[in-house]
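seq as requested:
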Amino acid sequence: MISTNIFANPEKLCFFAQMIGIKEELYKECLKYVQDCIDTAQQAINAAIESSNDDTKSSAGDKYETGREMMQQEIDRNRKQLEEAKMQKLSLEQIEHQKHYDIVQTGSLVITNFGKFYIGISRGQMQVEGVNYFAISAASPIGTKLMRQKIGYEFDFNGKTFKIEDIQ
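struct tokens:
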């Protein structure tokens, strides 16, 4: 929820608008990343199917069976990756990325003394306007420490004491 005192302070309102813009960019980058994963997996599946069909036309005997099995394994692996990417996309599409949060939830941008984290999918480091952000899932080790916490919360992670300085 947006507290009404944000609107009373033009400086805070400007900061809030800037953070919404950054969250929008992070969200779009995550969506693009997932769509690229979907496209890559689908292309790999299509190529493996085509290769398997070509192999069927030109091979015989044990070599054919081995090659066909390898292609089937490749297809299965890529189908699994495709399904995982589709699930990530569905998860992202459910995020209210323009919402301000007081408690860390999926869709939050969390500013800590050791980094800025966008809670969505495990995408890794991204840059927006020259600033580094880490897209992480709520189920990641650091994501589980952050979830449902408020500004001021401190926790230890990898030998460092993190403190939540802001949540957007």
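The chain is about 55% helix and 20% strand.
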